[in-house]
Every structure is written in C-alpha cells, then in structure tokens.
Amino acid sequence: MKKLLLGTTALVAGGMLSAPAFAADPIKLNVGGYFGSFLVFGNGGHKTGATTNKDAGVSIYYEGEIWFIGQTKLDNGTSIGVRIELEAWAQPGGAGSTNDQTDEEFIFAFGDWGRMELGGTDAAPYKMVYTTPSALWSHSFAQHNSGFPARSGDNGALHFGAMLNVAGPSGLSDTNKITYFTPRFSGLQLGVSYVPGAGPTSTAGGACGFGGGTGGGAFCGTNSDLYRNQISIGANYLNKFGEVSVALFGGAEWAAWDRGAAAANANRGNYEGYVVGLNLGYGGFTFGGGFVWDNNGLGGDNRTMAYGLGVMYTTGPWQASLAWFHGDKKEDRADATIIGGGGGVGKDKVDYFQMGVAYTLGPGIIANGGAYYISNRGQTANEKQDAVQFLIGTRLIF
After folding, report:
1. Residue 7: pLDDT above 60?
2. What is residue 14's predicted lDDT score, i.e. its pLDDT?
3. pLDDT given at position 395
4. Could you tell me if 392 and 372 are in contact, meaning their C-beta atoms sit under 8 angstroms apart?
5. What's the CA angle centered on 372, arms 246 and 244, to 5 degrees?
6. What are phi and psi of 179, to 5 degrees?
7. Which helix (H) or strand (E) holds 339?
8. Sign of the C-alpha dihedral, residues 252, 258, 259, 265?
9. In sequence order, what DSSP letters do the residues of 5-51 get, joined into one string?
10. Residues with Cβ < 8 Å from 214, sequence gap 6 or more?
11. How many Å apart are CA 198 and CA 227, to the nearest integer?
12. Could you tell me if 192 and 231 are in contact, meaning their C-beta atoms sit under 8 angstroms apart?
C-alpha cells in the first residue's frame, strides 16, 4: 500500500532505520517533448549606432525540448509527480556547444482539491492564458519562443517573449515558485503563484532560498536589489452556449522592489502588470484578442501597453490564421535601463501582422508555415526597423 510520508522517518528499537513497504513500484519517468525547425527567408534590418545591419535573406532556426514526466496515485486519491524539461538544442557557446540546460523542473500534486506545483516553472497566468489565436507555431501570441530578425533591443514595444501575457519582472518567469490552481467550478478556475525573491535581470534568475538547485542562501537580506514577494493571479472561464464556445482570461502580477546600492538599478521600482484575453469559437472559427499593460518595474512615467486581434479557422487537419498586434512603450528619461543602449526618450511603437498555416500530416507530425511583417518605430535609428519574413517548417511532437 502506497503511503505519503511527511516529516522525518521513524526510528525502530535498536537504532535501525525502518523503510516503509510499498505495494507498487515507485515513480517511473516517461519521455515526451517536441522539436521544430523553420526555413526563413525575406528581408529586413536595423541600425546599431551608425552601422546598418541587413539580414542575410535566408536563415534556419530550430527549437525543442525533451520532457521527463512521472507520477503515481496515492491511496487517498492524490496524484504526485515530477516534470523536468531539457532543452533539445545547443545553448550559446558556438556551433556544437554542449552547454545544454534544463528549462523547467518542478514537482506537482493534484486531486479533487485542485493542483499544486513547486519548483522552477511558469506562473499561473502564463499557464491559463487565452489571447489572440495563431496557427504559426513558435510565433504565437501566447507563447512566442522564436525571435524576430527585425527586433532591436532598443525598441521594447514588442512586449515580452509571450507578447500578450503577463511575464512579470525580467527573470521571474521560470524562477522557483509555489503555485495553486483551484478545481474548475461552473467553468471558472483560479490560480495563484508566489516567488519570495528574484534578480532584476534574466541572467540573475532566482535568489535567496528560492535560487534553484543547491545554490542560494537561506533568506534574502535587506537592501538586496531584488524583486521581492511576487504574487501572480490568473483566472479563466470556459463554457459553451449553443454553438458558441467562450474562453475568457485575466491575470495580474505584483512584485516589490527592495532597493539596494547598485547604481544600475537606480530607476527600478515596484512592478505591476495586468492582462485580459477572450476567445469566441463558432463553426470552426476562433475569434480572439488580448490586452496587456505593465509599468516595466520602473519608476516615473514608464509603461508598456499592447493589444492584438486575430481569427483562426480549423477544418480537419488544416488550420489557418490572420492576426495583428500593436504595442507601444513609453520612456521618460535617457537612461540605458529604460531606453536601451541606443534608444531615445519618447515612445517606441511596433505593428506586427501575421499569417499562419498548419497541416497535420500524421500523429505528432505537423507541417507549418506563414509570413509576417514587422514595423518598428522610435526616436533613433536603433529603434526603427522593418522586415518581411516567410517561414516554412515542421514540428514533431513525441
């Protein structure tokens, strides 16, 4: 009989350590994941200072993950498991680099009472999002894993890797956290995540007792130049009224800035962000959009706002979509933390038009393609870019 042991194990008489007896094998890991690649061609470019950078015209990129997942069900009805995601591509370090790393790693438990997650994974709103639909894999509006050749780091109006989803202060997306999802009641589900502390940049990652692995101290010190006590709340409502399906989503995140002595962080402040999204389905069509706003975790009159609209049609193995996204980022002072290394005070803007097509060739084998046009506008040459790209590729799910 399987039992969940909490706390210390019991010591038997004579000082021997007693091991519990199980009626079933322990958790065994199963392997899953995906791998996809694109051949991309088109034109575009941007400036870095006085240097004009033109795209080569043809590119190949790919992205994938290998998932190790295992779980078991206890006698009380609760299931407990673990998930570890290994990046299936070489990290920066040159061609053939063996600098591979895990993307997420966490344990989970679920039952009639809801679901808990503990470890390095995305926050509740990210996992509950419904926003602008897209058939173009890896360039979607809910999970955008691929970058844009036309995007410069000095134009921040594209707004997060997830585009229309609250990502929180930079560095907190996969930081170790604890998350709870309620059961779904009459179509409604809530989720909340908590992070004690994390660094202000994606390279800083987790900190203090939630640093991941064996690193990090037991507690956060004061005046630490860290975001502290991040709270992420998500909610979605799923239902169907006659022939119309409805998916409504909302999310919010807050994090306090614990100011220290680092000059590079002088303009940082408390973070807040909000997002909403809606999908309506009818007769194979999905109409949807989303809106997001945040203050970039900066003081003063600095904020980013974005919204998008799109439609996707699904019939048999085919999917096709058209979508548009607009974002703008308001910057109030000439500081690299705010405007980037070659930007200027004012407002950065971006308009992004996308077309996507997907065709399922067989179980787990999907041909994918499409095109997009990006127009970036700002105060300096570094913030102004245009690009037209065409993509064709394949995604394998295993």
Report:
1. no
2. 38
3. 95
4. no
5. 15
6. -135, 140
7. helix 336-339
8. negative
9. --SSPPBPTTSPBPPPP-SS-----EEEEEEEEEEEEEEEEEEETTE
10. none
11. 5
12. yes
Q: What pLDDT digit, counting tens, does each position of 347-357 carry?
A: 989 899 999 99
Least confident residue range of 132-141, 313-322, 375-384: 375-384
- Hey, how many other C-beta atoms are within 10 angstroms of the C-beta on 40? 19
| Residue type (1 letter), 371 | A
What is the pTM (predicted TM-score) of this model? 0.85
Q: What's the CA gap between 392 and 38, in Å, rounded?
A: 5
Contact 40, 58 (CB under 8 A): yes
151-155, 223-227, 359-363: range with highest mean pLDDT: 359-363
Q: What is the pLDDT of residue 142?
A: 79
What the chain holds in terms of domains, given with CATH numbers, is: 112-215+222-397 (2.40.160.10)
Model confidence over 67-98: pLDDT tens digits?
999 999 998 899 999 999 998 876 555 545 55
Residue 218 makes CB contacts below 8 A (sequence gap 6+) with 208, 209
How far is 323 from 291, CA to CA, in rounded Å? 14
Cα 135 to its chain centre, rounded Å, is 18
Task: For tokens 């973070």, name the residue.
Answer: 271
Q: Which amino acid would we find at residue 302?
A: N
DSSP 141-210: SS---S--TT--TT--TT-STTSSS---STT-SSSEEEEEEPPPBTTEEEEEEEEEEE-SSTTT-B-GGG
